[in-house]
Amino acid sequence: MEKVTIPSLSRRSFIRTSALAGGGILIGFNLFQSCKPKVAPATDISQLNYNDFNAFIKIADNGMVTIFSPNPEIGQGVKTAMPMLIAEELDVAWKNVQVSQGALDTKNYTRQVAGGSQSIRQGWEPLRQTGATARQMLINAAAVKWGVDPAQCKTNEGIITNTNGDSLGYGEVVKEAAMLEIPENIELKDPKNFKIIGKEVPNVDVDKIITGQSLYGIDYKEEGMVYASVLRPPAFGKKIKDFDTDAAKKVSGVLAVHKFGDKIAVLAKDTWSAMQGKKALKVTWAVDTKLENTEDHDKILLNLLNGKDFETMRADGDVKKAFTNADTIIERVYESPFLPHNCMEPMNFFADVTDDHIRLVGPIQTPAGTARRVAELLDRAPEDVSVDMTRMGGGFGRRLYGDFALEAAEISNIAKKPIKLVYSREDDMSAGIYRPAIKYKISAAIKDGKLTGYHLKEAAINSNMYGLIPNFFPAGAIENYQVDVAKYDSNITIGAWRAPYTNFLAFAEQSFFDELAEEMKVDRVQLRLDLLQKVKGTTDERIEYSPERLETVIKTAVAKSNWGKTPAGTYQGFSAYYCHNTHVAEVADVVLENNKPVVKKVVCVVDCGIVVNPLGARNQVEGGVIDGIGHAMYGDLTFADGKPEHKNFDTYRLIRMNEAPIVETHFIESDMAPTGLGEPTLPPAGAAVANAIKAATGLRLMSQPFIKQLENKEVLL
Amino acid sequence: MPVYKLKVNGQTLSVDADDNTPVLWVLRDHFDLVGTKFGCGIGQCGACTIHVDGVATRSCLLPVSAATDMEITTIEGLSKNASHPIQLAWKEVDVPQCGYCQAGQMMTAAAFIKNNTTPNTSEIRDAMSGNICRCAAYNRIEKAVELAANKLNQSKT
């Protein structure tokens, strides 16, 4: 029998417990303790603050369980899915679980980030271990009470039973459990015994959303807070020359005006007055660096593609030789514009900077990095800064950058007041950090009917593809294969945008494969399958996609979409891609209505391993596909003299319901560990549609947004 | 600044605001009714949709001075206990991703199904096309509008 002693002062560093004033216990877990092994145990558990840990389970005397979700919620569903992982192993009924957003833990946490579709993938093991450890502690406490071997005890949805027929609720043993040794080597459930993982669990905030309760950063307010609106340079490359704040100060409701750097903040008693005050500012702008134009960018990027100044990201075999010996060479150029993120909730942040503390509240995908940057900016100790994350009205990568939180902190520091900074849509669309404009030139060498060489060149504004992206499919499938990148340094700020790089790279490559199949006179799906055969059994460790899993999603998409068997008048386009650890294949169905191509349906087949929450997962798939189509079709941010030429939805087009296809989602059944879904269904969507439009109209779409090319042709949207 | 009295969700509320202040900001900043969302400020996205005398209206374009004699309903006042067919349907279908635009979507949909309890797909799509969902949860919004219309229709018969 396992010996259980009471009380024990021994505490493993990754877990601490604390009795709650209102009854029950709080159990804190440091999920990533392997990365930070030396967290000293608290000497006095009453002093514990839940900010010390990054996963928390609160169990009340009545058995109700509160789970604090560690990662920021941007609409990707982790606030529901991450606590599901804990609840599964804790073995509690989901109806008895409440979820709260955990705050930032700057000391112990390693990845409190919403980005890269990684929350579920990286939380899979540690979050389940958290739940399993807590469950074992509760069992041990009950076993001590009963004087039985813990091995004779079982749990079922928050109730512990033993072989003698006794039973105790978790709430009845929490206090004792909190005093026990922390058990080790806890075995996790066999996936076939899952009761919560794999079930359809509604969004935990749905009741608050449908009743309009305060949830988002822009909703946050507290006593004494004032509202801030900021005027920024109207163009990249401009700075303030002269300014006059008199008229702004006279606007009713305006309280103060502060210049900071090349920006001017207007503080007011409400958001509207702050925005009106900003409009009344009189500023003369001077050219600081250079004023750039989209036309120039296009020429510069094309010159780069045709030049020789590249960095090689991957080179297999001898591409040059393959092209010299080729019977046929196909070469295509694909072009994409800048894209703003356009989260529906414009950027905003609350900051209260005092001599003692810097308190930040708002929507942020990277709370830790932002807290660090705010501390640096204001020359303060990192521990002076706290961040509370609100639910976010979209992220898409924009909220990885804490520029708006830094602005809020700087304004509060000057004004010596708690402030809430709110961007207007125009501020949001023109303040920068965009998906950079990128062009690809892809060339293929064909010899004796076979694909013998593949050369992809990238020319991008400011930043090139990174990491393992050059090793995604078709890397490994073609003997002579090379990826070269080049960039142009611009003063327009760029950053990650949902599925960075692959959001356009997948369009270019999956469109190119269609052209390749046409040229080689082979079946377009079979071409991909044949290439995948060559990757099977690869020993190349840079290749992280699985040819088997990609093959399965492709074959399943063929079956589910009636590929090649659609009725007359329906035209299909195929696309398959791997990114963010997830394998996806999509088939778009296009029909012509009044000579206009209309995307009616997209079949999307996804292998993301175990699907933690199918209800949320399907929502991500549907949204990712439609978002991908919308931006491929309409997204276009152009610049003239450094100024973004679109600043609001009157001239910047986002996809709307009447333009959205029905998305039919199929998940590959799997017992593999789950991967993320926030991004990977977006990249293949553009090519699936472009390939279908080619089939329907004969028009090959080479650049985004499609609408530009379609408007110039006979087929009109 | 003048004081305006507004009838919001059955209550009369006063605000001291500039006469051009949009009802959106009066609701959010002065009445603490933050369910109505700011998206674009120019009536293009629909996030700020409320009902004015029962009609779906963009609150970002409605000055407070023009709204004094009207019955305003916001998402907070759509029903008691989240019992409006639209709210029930939104929950049943589990519509939201980020959820930010949903109040506006729901207010547009609620006004729409009141006058058309048997809408077809293309009527739903047209009626909802003024509301942007950046997460593109459009398939679910469409389903939820249809479901809500069915619920409303059944409750009438």
From TrEMBL, chain A:
SUPFAM superfamilies referenced in this protein's UniProt entry, alphabetically: Molybdenum cofactor-binding domain
Residues annotated as domain Aldehyde oxidase/xanthine dehydrogenase a/b hammerhead: 211-289
Protein's name in the database: Xanthine dehydrogenase family protein molybdopterin-binding subunit
The organism of origin for this protein: Aquimarina addita
UniProtKB/TrEMBL annotation, chain B:
Gene3D superfamilies: 3.10.20.30, [2Fe-2S]-binding domain
Domain of life (superkingdom): Bacteria
Keyword ATP-binding among UniProt keywords: no
CDD domains for the chain: fer2
Keyword Isomerase among record annotations: no
PANTHER family: BLR6218 PROTEIN (PTHR44379:SF2), OXIDOREDUCTASE WITH IRON-SULFUR SUBUNIT (PTHR44379)
Name of this protein: (2Fe-2S)-binding protein
Organism: Aquimarina addita
